[in-house]
């Protein structure tokens, strides 16, 4: 019996086509998930940098005290905590009162999974009597590179002892 040729797809062709479509949808779904994770990480990094920079600027302009603080909750964003460390730099004896100001912000806790953190470092004159009690920032900050504009007039920010 020779009849008309059958038109359409066989069951096996349909199963293979369905499997290919399902694999493609799975791959695209995973790519979208990776993209979302990276976008969230980039958003967190930008938020951390903004919070850290704001806190550092508050300290440098005198709106916040130049003192150490541990894991204080950030008022603008309660998911983040902020730590301030002030460490004297004794290796620069020719520049008494020089200290490293490190501002670190963290999101998350150790119990809730991985946390994200960001730090900025700036060299400042500490409020010790040897430095004259000033809170002005010195150049050589890790956040902005050499920034002589923020130094007091006539201050030598990077050189050795003044004659």
What percentage of residues falls in helices of 4 or more residues?
25-40%
Strand content: 15-25%
The gross shape turns out to be rod-shaped
Mean pLDDT: 75
Query: Helix-strand pattern, N to C?
Result: HEEEE
Tell me how many strands there are.
4
**How large is the count of helical segments?**
1
Structurally, the number of domains stands at 1
Structural class: alpha+beta
Distance linking N and C termini: 114 Å
Give a short account of the largest sheet.
Answer: 4 strands, antiparallel
Low-confidence stretches: 129-163
Order of neighbouring strands in the sheet with most strands: 1-2-3-4
What does the radius of gyration come to?
Answer: 29 Å
What would you note in describing this structure?
The protein is of the alpha+beta class and 163 residues long. It has one domain (11-150). It has one helix and four strands, in the order αββββ. A four-stranded antiparallel sheet has the order 1-2-3-4. β3 (98-107) and β4 form a beta hairpin. The longest helix is centred in the N-terminal third of the chain and has 51 residues, at 11-61. The protein is rod-shaped. Mean pLDDT is 75; it is low at 129-163.
Please summarize what this structure is.
The protein has one helix and four strands, in the order αββββ.
Question: Which key features would you list for this structure?
Answer:
4 strands, 4-stranded antiparallel sheet, alpha+beta, 163 residues, disordered C terminus, 1 helix
